[in-house]
Structure formats: structure tokens, C-alpha cells
Amino acid sequence: MPVDVLATLGDVQLVKKDGSTVAAKQALDGKLVGFLFSAHWCPPCRKLTPAVKKFYESLRSSGHNETEPDMMEYMEIHGDWYAIPFGDPLIKTLSDRFRVMGLPCFAIVNQKGIVAAKKSAKNDVQEKKKGNRALLSEWKKVTEDVAE
Predict the structure, then answer these.
(1) DSSP code for 84
(2) 107-136 confidence digits (pLDDT tens)
(3) Burial (CB count within 10 angstroms: exposed 0-12, middle 13-18, buried 19+), residue 86
(4) What is the pLDDT of residues 60-86, one digit of tens each?
(5) Where is each Thioredoxin domain found (predicted)?
(6) Model-level pTM?
(7) Nearest to residue 85, comparing CAs of 7, 6, 11?
(8) Residue 29 in contact with residue 134, Cβ under 8 Å?
(9) What distances in angstroms separate CA 69 from CA 18, 19, 47, one per listed residue?
(10) What does the longest C-alpha to C-alpha distance in the chain come to?
(11) What percent of the chain has pLDDT above 90?
């Protein structure tokens, strides 16, 4: 069942790799959101995360760790996106919501909580069978079609 993404995130302050924070509502309002459940110790995560980074960076300009320093180091290496603060119970809530069964997991969701891709998202990004903009458009269309 779809869940309002911003309502689920509530008043959480998302953190960036430089330690700065921003309210989730401010950072994500009106956007298609990708939730990447990943960890520094997970070899498949280390393969997926650089692909997600390239995907994200190309669209802009073109979760789960053992410790907060691990999370920040992972973000330093692999991308400058928003993260839910280390240890926040919201991570478990979202993990349950998206039925994360193992790492990595990448879910694309609209503001109303309609999932555009979960099982295929990581493969779509890693295999690059479609252009990044085409893939983003496809995900947006899926969520719009389901919402109607």
C-alpha cells in the first residue's frame, strides 16, 4: 500500500557527506526519490553504488552501515546525496516498507509512495540498457499511471 514519502520521513534532517543537514521535506518535495539500502562492507553494494552515483550525477549535471564513520566514508567515496542519519529508527521503517530482504536494494518511489521500480532498479542502473533520462521518464510514467 502506498505511503506518503514525506509524511513517513516526517521531520528527519537528512545528512550530506560534508555533515550538513537539510529537512527531508525541503530536499525531496515534489521529487521522484531513490532509496538505496547499501553498506560499505557489502561487495554487491560496492558494485551498485558507483553505478547509482553515475546515474545520479548525470541527471543532476548531465542505509545500512555498521558505524556512522563507515556511512560517511562510503558517501565520501561514492556520492554526495542525502542520507537518513545513522541509527535513525526511520531506516528500519523504510526497510520494512520496501521489504528489503538483502543488500543492496534500490527503490524508486514517488511522493505518494508509489513504487516505480525496486527489483529492476538496480539492474536498470547497472546494465545501462536505456539512457538515464529515458529511465527516469519511464519511472515517472509508471508512478503517474498507477496514481490515476
Answers:
(1) P
(2) 898 888 888 888 778 888 888 778 888 888
(3) middle
(4) 654 446 678 877 777 777 777 899 999
(5) 3-137
(6) 0.79
(7) 11
(8) no
(9) 12, 11, 20
(10) 43
(11) 25
